[in-house]
UniProtKB/TrEMBL annotation:
Residues 1-26 form the signal peptide. Belongs to the bacterial solute-binding protein 7 family. InterPro entries: DctP_fam, TRAP_DctP, TRAP_DctP_sf. GO terms for cellular component: outer membrane-bounded periplasmic space. SUPFAM superfamilies: Periplasmic binding protein-like II. PROSITE patterns: PROKAR_LIPOPROTEIN. Gene3D superfamilies: Bacterial extracellular solute-binding protein, family 7. It comes from Thermanaeromonas toyohensis ToBE. This is Tripartite ATP-independent transporter solute receptor, DctP family. It comes from the Bacteria.
Amino acid sequence: MLKRIAALLMATSLVLLLAGCSGKTAGNQQTSSTGQPQKKIIKVGIGLNEKSPQYKGLEKFKEMVEKGSNGRFEVQLYANSQLGDDVKMMEALRMGTQEMTCPSTAPIAGLSKKFMVFDLPFLFPNEKVADQVLDGPVGQKILDSLTDKGIIGLAYWENGFRQLTNNKREVKTPADLKGLKIRTMENPVHLATFRALGANPTPMPFGELFTAMQQGTIDGQENPLTTIYLQKFYEVQKYVSLTNHFYSPFVFMISKKFWDGLSKEDQELIKKAAKEAGAFQRQYNREQMKQMADNLRKAGMVVTELTPEQMEEFRKATEGVYKQFENEIGKDLIEEVKAEIAKYNK
């Protein structure tokens, strides 16, 4: 009997010892070796590099959250598609294996077709109007459509007006695009737009783009000037046309599984930081954009600025895209966004 009691005491002691070594308290809270609560980790992944305005915005977000939480959060930043492409990272948010990401609206259409409205060609006339619409009630309504997909949309940041590059010829009219293989995101509105312009759109993950252009697998691509310059596309592309064919927002989003485990105070902290860092990122992006055309000229690219008449030719060539996607996006939503744009574009 004494041997049994001794064995039971030893087993109990071992369990208690292992529990202590595991760094968990009775409330199942993670603790450090000093007995202090461990920092909550927020992993944020993007496709662009560390020099991009998007990454600079993430650095601002990291600073605000870590300072505002007195170090209770640690924000880890991953650039260059280290955590996967936009689609993979959004899926990781839904599963709860990654906390945050900030994709363009185009790949989000796979989760909520409402975001497709922002991919319609030549929708926004300028950045100021885009800000007012995105930060208003219709923008919030579209963000809210992610909630039942396991993602919380926090704020709109800016990718910017997208421009066209290629390595074959100068593009001034839709006719110049005929037959060119242009990489696009895997988004039906983008694909339809470039087909309407006479190109051969080719969806491809961003991480594969540079090599594909270098090897001649595709002829060109479309992205904001900051991305074109900072990703050094000028090394493998000769021509850039300032078409402004899409205005591309980023959507700063967080995993609902992670979000639901936060206190109301921490949710407010993160949401406020997302919006304020987004305002900083937009301004930084626009300042960078002003010098990018000259930077690309100096890097050896032929930069083509279109006349109003040439821009109108592009716009008219893509008018049918709106009608084509009325049923998927919702005619009422398209009209609501257009009405908001008209209200602010005065």
